[in-house]
């Protein structure tokens, strides 16, 4: 068919504007037949109406009646068992299609288009428009997102660029080791309770050191008030995001509190980031004025040098600080489910803190792996105490441990895509454009067909050449154009921290503690405090 059309088009081109009406008529006929054929094959596709899934009532019961809000990751496993790898569910007006097989996830991501979209953070954009701020990587879409992404990618994704941050990050790791030592000494058995809280501060300090090459004091004995207020603003802002998006705009006048609080939180976050950026750049300018040679090694410096307008630098740095410590992929629907959990929680958790906590938790329960990991780090370091980025490249077990932890506990257990350009075909269904698609990463990474003995911590599975699973079965940082831009920085930070912790301490489970389960709070986080015993080495 396409061959015939091509021949006709060629004939039309050759005959020019005066082409015979017969040719044109024939082309229209062929077009009609082609559309008919496509329709026919589309007819074989099933529609959303035919897709299985729970009724609105039973889904609401799973979520609220059975405390499913914090078990959303397990609902993925239930859903797959009950309905197969693809099912739909409605929460109020929001309908979402779940995909719980790597092949399906791959099909979605391969059709996501030039400028992929996770979800529409409309209230975040409204705030920026109101205050005249620019959009950062989290809020920008389309061409604007593309240009910011290309610029940031140069400094955040290129291996050589990221290696340059190892000295800065190692300074933060040193503070963390001191902090852990001080904390363990406060307990007669050397137990540090609630290790995640310590790692949250480490995560924030780490990302800010990369952004400003200066410190926030998160690991000091007394955390500065402004920093505490920044952390609090992030948490409150997330809760208010949900409320403000659930309320139509005209209701903001009637019930102004959520929107006002939301704006105040963002105001503080922007002010906090701007304060640090301005302070850093002023120091830079003073040094230049004195004729000093400066070699900035922090992201803000690179961005301002690359000609990014300051308005854009402020918004991007604010959003990177936020992305570095809190979730970025929460879609409106997921967030709505979790509203109650957020409101009730006071403990902040981040991707870095969650991954580090689970890593040490698993290593404490697998002393053999911990011993092999320590041996690997020591063999690479020789007489040195502090690894650099280049050393990490020679630590395959370290990488396998982090991969395995992120497979077992994918910090973002479900991601989302909204394909806006056109309808897409996935797994025999036609998914209309603008449908919210939930990618069930937890389900695929715990699938026994992909990973034998899926609930066990077996880092060795990543060391064999033929890993035997689908490449989209465990993708904790996402895949493709809109995947995590902080991935390399996060991995480096994790490797440097774990290497120093296992060489400084032996980590054992708290003798009085039990197993800790995971729960969903947008991120997949420990359900209860992780307490660990640290023994000096
Ligand atoms: C263990 C640590 C981390 C994990 C597992 C993680 C995971 C993810 C995932 C799954 C996404 C969504 C990808 C997609 O939609 O395809 C994402 C996006 C993103 N992450 Fe991370 N992340 C981590 C740490 C970080 C850090 C430290 C930063 C900041 C430096 C960061 C910055 C971002 C940003 C800005 C985006 C949005 C990218 C865009 O929209 O173009 N992440 N991350």
CATH architecture of the domain at 122-412 and 476-536: Orthogonal Bundle
Low-pLDDT runs: 1-40, 327-347
Number of strands: 11
User: What is the CATH class name of the domain at 122-412 and 476-536?
Assistant: Mainly Alpha
Note the total helix count.
22
Instruction: Give the mean pLDDT.
Output: 85
- What amount of the residues lies in strands? 5-15%
Cofactor: heme
Pfam family, one: p450
InterPro entries: CYP11_CYP27_families, Cyt_P450, Cyt_P450_CS, Cyt_P450_E_grp-I, Cyt_P450_sf
Family: Belongs to the cytochrome P450 family.
Which labels suit this protein?
537 residues, alpha+beta, Cytochrome p450, 4-stranded mixed sheet, 9% strand, disordered N terminus, binds protoporphyrin IX containing FE, oxidoreductase activity, acting on paired donors, with incorporation or reduction of molecular oxygen, monooxygenase activity, Cyt_P450_E_grp-I, iron, heme
What does the model show?
By secondary structure, the chain is an alpha+beta fold. Helices cover 56% and strands 9% of the residues. The protein has 22 helices and eleven strands. The strands form four sheets. The chain has a four-stranded mixed beta sheet. The chain has a three-stranded antiparallel beta sheet with strand order 3-11-8. A two-stranded antiparallel sheet has the order 5-6. β1 and β2 (94-99) form a beta hairpin. α11 (225-246) crosses α16 and α13 crosses α15 (310-325). The chain is globular. It starts with a helix and ends with a strand. Residues 118, 137-138, 149, 207, 320, 323-324, 328-329, 351-352, 355, 411-412, 415, 476-478, 482-486, 489-490 line the site of protoporphyrin IX containing FE. GO terms for molecular function: heme binding; iron ion binding; monooxygenase activity; oxidoreductase activity, acting on paired donors, with incorporation or reduction of molecular oxygen. Keywords: Heme, Iron, Metal-binding, Monooxygenase, Oxidoreductase. It comes from Clupea harengus. Heme binds at residue 484.
